[in-house]
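Propose amino acids for all 366 sites.
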């Protein structure tokens, strides 16, 4: 059982709709949001006013970090309320005490020293968070996080990580009740594109594995004609040959209602990976604000003096995936885009993501 789990783990890595809640509920929710926004704005003014009276640079930095953390806690409280409201509205709310299958926690890492639980979401900086957990464990030798090779982080070093699903029910519930719980999420359309480009295109060992495991089936099931020359020209920078899965084929595979196997963790919905309607997370970080949110988490678990989360530019040398949204999704039929949105709609709603404007324009085409 442990070997099977490890094989799987090695590959790891808005608009609020109130509907029938009524106008009073809508008014109260907007009022609460406005009060929080106003308080945050006033808080920023107070911070800058106080900083004017400080002369020491160290005091500036400490005070600013403290005030930023307070405002972050406030915004996290609003997001947490929003998630619980949407879970209730979507009829997805559940009590963790009713969980009888520990396997649903197979994506959650445990650190007993710092009393923290982290739900891994592939394509949302999970490799670097695995580096953090390995480094803090003291079980691997490394001068810095980036000394830990990616292949080892998802391979040989996995044995040094503890997963919540490995524990007994009593141990699981104790940690759920007492440990700091966090997760990082990303705009869903962007995450899908990132997974596609990394796992199903090119000649890397990772791409070869995923093309063998998923690509053959996807091509056989959804490829009906050769790629048009004009489209091939636009995608030539990524499509190496016809063994690469086309992006539209990938989206058809995701939206296929006849598919009888769960989605791979690299493109599975957040609701199925991290169960936000079962677990009440203490912090929900956004990939769009990764550097600041990561440092906040390290401060919250009192590990910021031991490790610094790698800035994006130190581990990613290609252009940002967001820059390619229109390039890839522009060739997708609007009806298919809308099907993909419906598939990931709970993730959009729960984590308060609105559809990017360029994606909305593509979806609205006739």
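Proposal:
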């Amino acid at each position: 059982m442990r070997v099977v789990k490890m094989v799987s783990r090695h590959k790891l890595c808005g608009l609020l709709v109130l509907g029938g809640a009524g106008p009073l509920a809508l008014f109260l929710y907007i009022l609460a949001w406005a009060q929080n926004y106003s308080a945050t704005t006033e808080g920023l003014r107070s911070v800058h006013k106080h900083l004017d009276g400080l002369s020491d640079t160290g005091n500036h930095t400490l005070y600013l970090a403290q005030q930023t953390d307070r405002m972050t806690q406030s915004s996290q409280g609003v997001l947490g309320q929003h998630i619980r409201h949407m879970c209730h509205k979507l009829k997805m709310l559940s009590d963790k005490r009713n969980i009888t299958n520990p396997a649903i926690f197979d994506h959650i890492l445990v650190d007993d020293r710092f009393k923290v639980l982290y739900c891994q979401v592939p394509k949302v900086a999970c490799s670097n968070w695995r580096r953090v957990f390995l480094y803090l464990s003291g079980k691997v030798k490394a001068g810095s996080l980036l000394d830990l090779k990616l292949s080892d982080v998802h391979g040989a070093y996995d044995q040094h990580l503890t997963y919540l699903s490995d524990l007994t029910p009593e141990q699981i519930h104790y940690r759920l009740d007492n440990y700091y719980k966090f997760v990082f999420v990303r705009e869903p359309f962007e995450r899908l594109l990132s997974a596609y480009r990394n796992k199903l295109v090119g000649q890397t060992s990772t791409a070869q594995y995923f093309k063998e495991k998923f690509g053959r089936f996807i091509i056989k099931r959804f490829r009906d004609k050769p790629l048009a020359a004009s489209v091939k020209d636009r995608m030539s920078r990524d499509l190496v040959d016809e063994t690469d899965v086309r992006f539209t084929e990938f989206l058809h595979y995701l939206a296929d209602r006849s598919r009888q196997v769960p989605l791979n963790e690299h493109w599975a919905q957040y609701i199925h990976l991290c169960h936000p309607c079962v677990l009440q997370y203490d912090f929900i970080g956004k990939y769009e604000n990764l550097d600041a949110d990561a440092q906040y988490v390290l401060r919250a678990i009192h590990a910021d003096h031991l490790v610094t989360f790698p800035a994006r530019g130190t581990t990613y040398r290609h252009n940002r995936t967001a820059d390619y949204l229109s390039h890839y999704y522009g060739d997708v039929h609007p009806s298919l885009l809308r099907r993909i949105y419906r598939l990931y709609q709970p993730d959009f709603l729960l984590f308060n993501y609105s559809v990017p404007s360029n994606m909305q324009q593509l979806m609205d085409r006739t």
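Residues 57-89 form the longest helix (33 residues). The first strand starts at residue 108 and ends at 111.
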